[in-house]
Amino acid sequence: MTQKLLMTRSVLNPVAPIGVGTPEVESMGSYFCRLAMSHCISAADLGHTVERAMQWSHSEGWRWHGISLSGMSDTAHDWACALSKLTSVDNLHSLTLLPWRDVIAEQSARPASAQWCPHCLADDRAAGATPYFRLSWDVGAVSACPKHQRRLVHVCPDCGCANTRHKSVFVVPGWCTSCGGFLGVGDSEPATPAEAWIAGQLGAMLAVKYDLASRPSLEAMLDGIRKLVQHLDDGKSARFARRIGLPKNTVRYWLTEGGTPGLPALLRIASQSGLTLPKLLAGDLTEWPQACADIHDLNSLFPDLKERAPRKVRNWDRIRAQLAALNESSAVVSVRETARDLNVNVRQLYIHANEEARALAVRWNEHRQRLSEESRKKTSELIERVYPEIAAKGKAVNLREVLAHVPKEDLDGVRDVFSVLQEMKKMEQSRVA
Ligand SMILES: [Zn+2]
Ligand SMILES: [Zn+2]
């Protein structure tokens, strides 16, 4: 494949996507960041380059991470086509949910926040491979890693911030965009059997390779569901609806009006019929019900979220005393983390313990500032160390070369390599001028 790629001439580097045809297929968002890196430009600049090449009109305030590249929208489709064209890498649709856009309702497939499996990223790095984001992490129903059977996380282990996986102008997949720490450290909680089952089903779905012409069709899938209703409940859709724990009108809507089910609903059907998710989506009942898998307990798979937790009465005097003690202690923690430990909302903390929470925030910011300065110092020392080595080979000193020349263990705690490098270059240029 690499040989074939090297032979092609394309506008953008023909970067090979990772894991196509496996449950661990790369997401388009991840591919996009790696493509930008291969050109040593920011993801934002790559976005503008693609827009110019495709002669798309720019929208003011456009942000590359604002578009759902890995999803199943028309935008995802346009970008997949454009990137395939510009890189000459065929069928980049495989890095999105587009092959399933006819059989899964679009809204149902989006995750609430950017999540990842730290163990997968750690494995990538340990194997000397490029850390990348898996497409399954961008699927709403998935909350666990099928490979490691652990829960996905969405908070940086270093700085405690959420939404720092890729929401930035410049992204190196696997490193926090806020503090630059590696996202593949630390442990995550074990997944429940239900979470692992759902992740496994989605993994199996993503492992099926479709080109856009052969992708599953709504008619075939609804036909399959009709057959299930016939076999399991004598064709009575109300009884089938009860079986899968959904309102009867929902099931009737799919079957009589051709409505597209959401992903949670499809998982319910798979769990109660024993059909695997990929077979259900393809409407393929050829081996059913002979090769019927286990039927799962619906309540443990889909706990009723509507049941509200009783309102908690908080002892704010005690909480304020706890915060005051934290402010005196040598450990520095963020307000967000403290709120999480106390099981309180951050806003409530600021309302009821304002003085203490603000003091905590000041300490945290000073601490981060200090860490950031130390790490930038370490980073510039590191770059200075490898600079002569790279220059001696006649190569340009850029992010890729720096990362390639630094031993893996030295990269721990190293942050902002890109921006430090830019700064050093600017200083060097002004010195020469
Ligand atoms: Zn994993
Ligand atoms: Zn971070």
Could you write a compact summary of the structure shown?
The chain contains 18 helices and two strands. The chain has 433 residues and is mainly α.
Question: Would you write up a description of this structure?
Answer:
The protein contains 18 helices and 2 strands. It is mainly alpha-helical. It folds into 3 domains: 150 residues, no CATH class; 86 residues, 434 Repressor (Amino-terminal Domain) (Orthogonal Bundle); 117 residues, no CATH class. The chain has a two-stranded antiparallel sheet with strand order 1-2. Helix 8 packs across helix 9 and helix 16 packs across helix 18. About 1% of the residues have low confidence. The site of one zinc ion has 6 residues, from helix 5.
Mean pLDDT: 86
Ligands bound to this protein structure:
zinc ion
Order of helices and strands: HHHHHEEHHHHHHHHHHHHH
Radius of gyration: 25 Å
How much strand content do the residues show? Answer: under 5%
Please render the helix and strand layout as text:
Layout (H helix, E strand, L loop, with lengths): L1 H6 L20 H11 L4 H11 L20 H14 L30 H9 L17 E2 L4 E2 L41 H15 L10 H16 L3 H8 L3 H10 L5 H11 L3 H6 L15 H4 L14 H13 L6 H8 L3 H7 L1 H39 L6 H7 L11 H16 L1
Antiparallel strand pairs: 1-2
